[in-house]
């Protein structure tokens, strides 16, 4: 599990304007019996505590919804892995979900001798090189693990979190960190802290060999991920000494196959100490009460002397290094430069330069490369780590373009920076857009905890004031400073990775071990869990929407108006919503794409992008299957300018034949690349299975039709888009009355709407017998999806669907996950859902998924089929699933623009009220018998379509024919081109 580290910047809002030059100063205060530090004008109002044992606690109150986001952060990741045991930190992350001597076990006294024996066997296995003897030892490990599983309770941690209302149990490991994350209802704090404190008190590394196999599967997914391989190779060349480049988070195959439980325990004891850990909480609580509870819960932790990874500085790079990577996906070129340590002036300038180059609107690469279609796509980014940062440029070549040509175009943009050939206003606009993009983010608890957790990990929690002032400091940088810096930094000392389409002959196969399924004891409960869940909690009151009260309905001309007033700040979002899309017109998506390259009688396409960027506003034209939207957003003070400019663009855009020619070429190249994307292929197989040869994936213009497409056809759509029926939706600070008058002046409507062409109707296939739809792809894994159409949507079934999904196939505590991953170690990723449609006229479907090593495919299919046909019964799982489903509904708060979106979602389902009301009432009386009946009637013993993407060199046709009639599809059949 890994994450991308984002550069953190901040904002301050006052009235309708974004303020600059606000003072951020550290202050000290005491309250609730504890002292803490805080920074003045901090929008998160974070309190930074250090407990007597050295544990850092960061609290940020936010009472807008009755929930709390949590992170437990440890400054230990792949950097601190021993060189002889790479991947160890990541192993440990997985094992910290397995329980302690008090939970996750039925009888620890009986379990422990077996666990000790397993540990000793792994040490023997680790020291043995003879293949025959290793297999003998592994057979003993497998046998003893089966005996130990008589006493273990798999995923009891996840069941507890599910029972108290947790919605997102997960964790990740990265270079400098391992972070455990949860969210929970605010009424479950006491139970939650008791569980978390116990979790880290004395973790027991049980159910190890099946979990280790899940990590192997995660490694396999990496071997099938070309972008992952590109990043690994680039890091290895940029950091020839530092562990950023010399060892990966997932670890080497050799080390994965030779684990040591002794080394993992040593690692835990060394790094999981309070003076190296932080608890971060944001949400609905009182800080004075919370700090007392946290301090009491984790007082048992004892500080220890600690020495973190402290590498020797990298020597300067002195030459250009080039490496080639082969793989089945599309070609790309990536250029990387080694940057600077966190919170340095140099890193801030590199962050700024990355936005000057690439900001999605008016950066040099956006304008010169993407807008002018000189490459298929290009971007720049700066990734900040603790000791260094990595500055990257990346491009996908267009039709007929070599990787070297694309590389040169990227370097040409660097030359523009070095020569000062850019507008200084880009600096100001970059800062303004950064502030605006964060304006709503700090309302979200997960953003708050991620921001301050990153500060802790990078050892700069004491520099929070500096991080907060980063945008204002960035605004002080002038063009000359950027140019001078660029000339010093961008030298011939970079790394180039050329990703070619071709066979990767370096991939090592991870051999499948012989694993006997372990017992999961799903229906058992430890004494600790019984006591924890028995404690009373104060109920949270559900709050559902009343559309007649929470929305304002009106008219502007012949168009319906739906508004929600923003009483918190000056952000607005205006949407024109059309009930038509690509299924009404194949040309509509191409018209939307064409628009981005067009000029008007007043402005060039480049000037349009710059104008929006300069006023920190956005506009988009989005075409989905049966809905199209034009969205405009930004600060209300720029409303007239942004809306008028958008209206002007649609009314006055003019043909650009050269742009159309390039667009056609880019689309053809994109289509070639899509055929190289295994996820797109699997999605296409699914649509083929559901709808047959004529389906949503291949309902597109053929290549010949694409070449015949004309500017006049596309301009006719763009110029007349407002004549088609649409509603006007607004979330912003204006009152409904003021907005309705306002919009009438800037959005001109016809006397009557033009009728859209009828939408294409796709006929659902009738699943009378099992069918296999196979597509060949050069990969290590096999990916299998089950899909079955199951009749037209029925809203009365939604409560059962919700609860069934939670019990059967959703999350780590589900039946599917526990069986296929925990017990049988057949996959890293697996799930199963009964899918209800987004529109009342559409069909339901049953869908399942397993991504497994190719030589496990038959076993994985058999395991999933067994669950689809026979629903295991677990009272404890059912009760926790029911509690979790109800908690999710009770604690959810739909606010702001999402109220409008939810209204339309329910309207599409034929509902005139908040659908969650029916779900909440419907789930409460349900019993396991109801879910069993639902499974019997809708899932069990039915014919299914098996959609399989795998290498025909690794899976056998004879095996697939055992699942059903084999249909091997060509890419042209799947995609329609």
What's the overall average pLDDT, rounded?
93
Q: Which value, in Å, is the CA radius of gyration? A: 29 Å
Number of helices: 38
* Number of E strands: 27
Uncertain parts: 1-20
Distance between the termini: 36 Å
Largest sheet: 6 strands, mixed
Percent helix: 40-55%
In percent, how much strand structure appears in the residues? 15-25%
Supply the CATH class of the largest domain: Alpha Beta
CATH superfamily of the largest domain: Metalloenzyme, LuxS/M16 peptidase-like
Say what the CATH topology of the largest domain is: Cytochrome Bc1 Complex, Chain A, domain 1
Cα shape = globular
| Name of the CATH architecture of the largest domain | 2-Layer Sandwich
Q: Taking strands numbered 1, 2, ... along the chain, how are they ordered across the largest sheet?
A: 5-6-10-7-9-8
The total tally of domains equals 3
- Secondary-structure class: alpha+beta
GO molecular function, one term: metalloendopeptidase activity
GO biological process, one term: proteolysis
Pfam families: Peptidase_M16, Peptidase_M16_C
Family: Belongs to the peptidase M16 family.
Tags for this model:
977 residues, alpha+beta, Cytochrome Bc1 Complex, Chain A, domain 1, 3 domains, six-stranded mixed β-sheet, 27 strands
List the helices and strands and how they pair.
Elements (H helix, E strand, L loop, with lengths): L12 E2 L2 E2 L7 E6 L2 E6 L7 E4 L5 E6 L5 E8 L13 H8 L12 H20 L3 H18 L7 H8 L6 E4 L4 E8 L3 H11 L8 H16 L2 H13 L4 H4 L6 H4 L4 H11 L5 E7 L3 H11 L23 E7 L4 E7 L6 H13 L6 H8 L5 E8 L4 E8 L6 H17 L5 H15 L5 H13 L6 H5 L1 H6 L3 H11 L5 E7 L25 H8 L12 H4 L1 E5 L2 E7 L5 E8 L9 H8 L9 H10 L3 E6 L4 E8 L3 H14 L4 H18 L3 H14 L11 H6 L2 H9 L6 E7 L3 H11 L24 E6 L4 E12 L5 H11 L6 H9 L5 E7 L7 E11 L3 H13 L5 H17 L5 H12 L6 H9 L4 H11 L6 E6 L6 H5 L3 E4 L2 H5 L2
Parallel strand pairs: 6-10, 11-15, 17-21, 22-26, 22-27
Antiparallel strand pairs: 1-2, 3-4, 5-6, 7-9, 7-10, 8-9, 12-14, 12-15, 13-14, 16-17, 18-20, 18-21, 19-20, 23-25, 23-26, 24-25
Helix pairs in contact: 1-10, 2-3, 4-33, 13-14, 14-19, 22-28, 30-33, 30-35, 30-36, 31-32, 33-35
């Amino acid at each position: 599990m890994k994450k991308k580290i984002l550069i953190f910047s901040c904002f301050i809002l006052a009235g309708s304007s974004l303020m600059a030059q606000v003072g951020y100063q550290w202050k000290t205060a005491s309250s609730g019996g504890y002292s803490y530090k805080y920074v003045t004008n901090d929008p998160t109002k974070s309190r930074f505590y250090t407990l007597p044992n050295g544990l850092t606690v960061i609290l940020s109150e936010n009472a807008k919804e009755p929930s709390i986001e949590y992170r437990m952060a440890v400054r230990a990741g792949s950097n601190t892995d021993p060189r002889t045991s790479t991947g160890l930190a990541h192993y440990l992350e997985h094992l910290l979900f397995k329980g302690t001597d008090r939970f996750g076990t039925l009888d620890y006294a009986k379990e422990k001798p077996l666990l000790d024996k397993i540990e000793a066997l792994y040490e023997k296995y680790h020291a043995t090189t003879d293949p025959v003897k290793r297999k003998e030892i592994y057979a003993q490990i497998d046998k003893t693990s089966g005996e130990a599983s008589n006493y273990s309770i798999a995923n009891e941690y996840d069941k507890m979190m599910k029972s108290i209302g947790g919605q997102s149990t997960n964790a990740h490991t990265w270079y400098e960190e391992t972070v455990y994350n949860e969210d929970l209802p605010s009424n479950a704090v006491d139970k939650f802290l008791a569980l978390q404190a116990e979790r880290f008190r004395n973790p027991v590394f049980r159910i190890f060999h099946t979990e280790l196999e899940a990590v192997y599967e995660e490694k396999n997914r990496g071997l099938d991920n070309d972008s992952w391989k590109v990043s690994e190779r680039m890091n290895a060349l940029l950091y020839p000494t530092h562990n950023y480049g010399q060892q990966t988070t997932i670890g080497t195959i050799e080390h994965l196959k030779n684990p040591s439980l002794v080394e993992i325990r040593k690692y835990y004891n060394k790094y999981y100490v309070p003076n190296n850990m932080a608890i971060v909480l944001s949400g609905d609580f009182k800080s004075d009460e919370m700090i007392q509870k946290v301090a009491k819960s984790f007082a048992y932790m004892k500080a220890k002397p600690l020495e973190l990874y402290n590498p020797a500085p990298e020597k300067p790079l002195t030459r250009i290094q080039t490496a080639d990577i082969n793989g089945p996906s599309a070609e790309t070129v990536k250029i990387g430069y080694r940057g600077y340590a966190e919170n340095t002036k140099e890193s801030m300038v590199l962050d700024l330069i990355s936005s000057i180059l690439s900001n999605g609107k008016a950066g040099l690469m956006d304008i010169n490369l993407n807008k002018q279609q000189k490459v298929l796509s290009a971007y720049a980014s700066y990734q900040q780590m603790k000791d260094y940062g990595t500055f990257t440029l990346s491009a996908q070549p267009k039709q007929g373009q070599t990787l070297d040509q694309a590389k040169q175009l990227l370097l040409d943009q660097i030359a523009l920076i070095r020569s000062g050939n850019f507008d200084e206003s880009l600096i100001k606009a970059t800062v303004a857009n950064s502030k605006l993009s964060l304006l709503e983010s700090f309302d979200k608890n997960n953003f708050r905890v991620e921001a301050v957790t990153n500060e802790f990990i990078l050892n700069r929690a004491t520099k929070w004031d500096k991080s907060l002032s980063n945008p204002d400091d960035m605004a002080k940088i002038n063009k000359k400073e950027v140019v001078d810096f660029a000339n010093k930094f961008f030298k011939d000392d970079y790394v180039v990775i050329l990703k070619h389409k071709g066979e990767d002959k370096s991939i090592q196969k991870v051999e499948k071990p012989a694993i006997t399924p372990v017992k999961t004891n799903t229906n058992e409960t430890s004494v600790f869990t019984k006591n924890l869940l028995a404690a009373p909690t104060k109920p949270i009151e559900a709050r559902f929407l009343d559309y007649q009260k929470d929305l304002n309905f009106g008219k502007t001309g012949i168009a319906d108006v739906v508004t929600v007033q923003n009483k918190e700040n000056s952000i607005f979002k205006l949407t024109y919503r059309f009930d038509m899309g690509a299924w009404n017109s194949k040309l509509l998506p191409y018209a939307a794409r064409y628009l981005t390259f067009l000029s008007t009688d007043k402005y060039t396409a480049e000037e349009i992008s710059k104008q929006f960027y300069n006023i920190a506003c956005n506009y988009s034209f989005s075409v989905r299957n049966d809905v199209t939207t034009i969205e405009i957003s930004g600060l209300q003070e720029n409303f007239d300018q942004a809306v008028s400019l958008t209206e002007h663009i649609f009314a006055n855009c003019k043909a650009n034949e050269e742009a159309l020619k390039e667009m056609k070429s880019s689309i053809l190249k994109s289509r070639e690349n899509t055929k190289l994307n295994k996820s797109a292929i699997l999605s296409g197989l699914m649509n083929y299975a559901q709808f047959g040869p004529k389906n949503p994936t291949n309902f597109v213009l053929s290549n010949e039709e694409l070449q015949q497409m004309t500017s006049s056809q596309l301009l006719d759509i763009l110029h007349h888009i407002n004549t088609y029926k649409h509603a006007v939706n607004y979330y912003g600070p204006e009152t409904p009355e003021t907005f309705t008058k306002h919009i009438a002046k800037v959005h001109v409507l016809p006397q009557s709407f033009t009728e859209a062409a009828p939408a294409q109707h796709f006929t659902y296939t009738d699943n009378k017998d099992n069918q296999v739809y196979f597509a060949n792809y050069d990969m290590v894994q096999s990916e299998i999806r089950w899909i079955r159409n199951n009749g037209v949507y029925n809203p009365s079934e939604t409560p059962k669907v919700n609860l069934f999904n939670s019990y059967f196939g959703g999350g780590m505590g589900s039946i599917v996950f526990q069986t296929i991953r925990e017990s049988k170690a057949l996959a890293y990723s697996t799930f199963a859902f009964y899918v209800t449609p987004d529109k009342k006229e559409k069909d339901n479907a049953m869908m399942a998924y397993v991504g497994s090593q190719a030589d496990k495919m038959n076993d994985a299919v058999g395991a999933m089929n067994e669950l689809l046909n026979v629903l295991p019964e677990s009272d404890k799982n059912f009760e926790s699933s029911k509690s979790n489903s109800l908690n999710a509904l009770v604690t959810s708060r739909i606010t702001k623009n999402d109220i409008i979106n939810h209204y339309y979602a329910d309207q599409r389902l034929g509902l005139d009220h908040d659908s969650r009301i029916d779900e909440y009432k419907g789930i409460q009386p349900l019993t396991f018998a109801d879910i069993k009946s639902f499974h019997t009637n809708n899932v069990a013993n039915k014919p299914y379509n098996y959609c399989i993407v795998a290498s025909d060199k690794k899976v056998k046709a004879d095996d697939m024919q055992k699942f059903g009639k084999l249909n091997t599809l060509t890419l042209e059949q799947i995609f329609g081109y």
